[in-house]
Each structure stands twice: as C-alpha cells, then as structure tokens.
Design a protein that fits this description.
single chain, about 290 residues, two-stranded antiparallel sheet, 4 strands
C-alpha cells in the first residue's frame, strides 16, 4: 500500500530521521515563515470577529498549525531521544498537566485565569490535552538558544540554567500578553498587558523544573552537535517571534514587541534566520 501511494515505510529509525530532516529542509520557509504569518492573520481575524464560527479559533486548525511549526524542533531532537530523554519528557508531561490542573482550580501558581478559546480536546474538561505541544517547545527552544549564545560558558551549570530560565521568562513575557489580547485566556487580575505578575512567578517554578528535567534528560554534547549540523533546529523559535511578535504589534503591546525584537535579534546573532530559498521546492521552481 505504501509503495502504491508513492512512499515507503522507513527501514529503521535512522532512515526515518533522515526523511524527516529532508521534509523540514524542503519546506523550511513555508513551515517557519508562511505558517506563523498565516496563523497570526487568522487568529487576529478570529479575535476581530471577521471569520464565521466554524473557522474562527477552530481548535483543529490551531493545533494543526502549532504541530507543523513544531516540526523543525521535533526533527532536530528526534535522533537524541534515548530512554533517558523519553523518561524526562514523560515526567514533564505528568508535571505540566498536574500543575495546570491545579492552577485552573486554585489560581496558584499563575493567578486566577480561565480559557476563553477552545484549544482542542480537554483533559478532565479543564486542561488542553495538547498542553505539552504548547509548553515543551518554549522551554527546549530557550535551552537550545542559550547553548548557542553562551558557547563554552554553557558547560557551567549555573550560568546555563539561569540563562535558560531567564529566556523562558522572556518568551512568556511575549506570549501571554498576545494570548490575552486575542482571548486565548483571561486573568482575573491584569497588571502587565492583562497578565498578573504572579503568572511570571509561577513560570519561575514551572520553568525551573522543566529546565532541570531537560538538562538532566538530554545529552548536552549531542544537542550541541545536532545544533551545528541541523540549520533549522531553532526554526520553531523563528515562528514564535513572527507569530506572537506580529500579534503584539497589532495590539500595540510595545514592550512585548520590543522583547520579540530582542529574541529575533538573538536568532540573527546565531545565524538562525539564514533561509536559503534556493534549496526549497519554491526556489527550484523559480530557477526552472
């Protein structure tokens, strides 16, 4: 059946990761630039009541678009997923569901909040089942960026972990104001563009645990080698800057916009905006 459809099941894990690498590399610009820009326009149109109900904030579209933008990160870490890394991801999954459920029910540690948009199937009717898809990449992308920015200094645990946690907080200072502006969720008390400072204190807790689990679970030397050989590994962070930077710009959330520009500047510094369109299907079509 696979051969009739024009593709073959990979022989082993190495073949599967090579195929995934090729897929992401082939469609790199579409995944990292086109999808977040279309996503930003669609979310803004939904928030402004410009789309009809079946399309406005469609949870399957949101989840599908998010999964597509995660592909570069998934492809990047796929070869490094050993038992230790999978165990760390399993523990973090359980933790993220647990603390989110507790937060929805009690208001701690993020502050009193409610979901304003259906983000897909809900665990126990209260927490998005796709929570790890939304949460894990924010931390792991921050960790990878810090490895690039610090270089050899990242071998020292304290600077590495503190810099990663600071980057995670920076990411949330961009994400939460934009998410509140379009109605993804709403806090009872809004202090920073509709977000309470308690939310960021909560992120210090959840972010610290997530950073530690990633640090313990993944082979840091392997991540470094993969970062050097895989030019698209941080493209998910590129998508994040374009999507949430654009949404914050629309609502004139100037501090988050400035922080998104800072994050984008760090990606430029590490040469992670180096899209070679000539290597994509579009580029080859233009040459022909």
């Amino acid at each position: 059946m696979a051969e009739l459809l024009g593709w073959q099941v990979p022989e082993d894990r190495a073949a599967a990761t090579r195929r995934l690498d090729a897929l992401v590399r082939e469609h790199r610009f579409t995944i990292a630039v086109v999808f977040p820009l279309v996503g930003a326009v669609t979310l803004l149109a939904s928030a402004q009541n410009l789309l009809p109900p079946p399309l406005a904030f469609n949870p399957f579209f949101v989840l599908f678009g998010t999964l597509v933008m995660r592909l570069p990160l998934v492809a990047g870490i796929a070869p490094l997923l050993d038992r230790k890394a999978v165990a760390a991801l399993g523990l973090l999954t359980a933790y993220s569901y647990g603390i989110e459920l507790y937060g929805v029910r009690t208001g701690w540690p993020y502050g009193e909040f409610t979901y304003g948009v259906d983000l897909g199937p809900m665990l126990l009717g209260e927490v998005p089942l796709g929570l790890p898809v939304f949460f894990f990449p924010l931390v792991l992308n921050s960790y990878l960026l810090v490895l690039l920015l610090l270089g050899r200094r990242a071998e020292s645990a304290l600077p590495r972990l503190l810099a990663t946690l600071a980057t995670v907080l920076l990411v949330d200072l961009i994400l939460d104001p934009g998410a509140v502006a379009i109605g993804f969720w709403e806090y009872e008390l809004g202090q920073f563009y509709g977000v309470p400072w308690q939310n960021y204190q909560g992120w210090l807790l959840s972010g610290s645990i997530a950073v530690l689990l990633f640090d313990l679970g993944f082979d840091r030397a392997g991540l470094r080698r993969r970062l050097e050989s895989c030019e698209f590994m941080l493209d998910d962070l590129v998508s994040f800057v374009l999507l949430w930077g654009g949404i914050n710009l629309f609502y004139a959330n100037w501090v988050p916009v400035g922080l998104a520009a800072l994050l984008g500047g760090s990606l430029l510094w590490t040469d992670r905006f180096d899209f070679d369109l000539s290597e994509t299907r579009l580029g080859r079509a233009v040459r022909r």
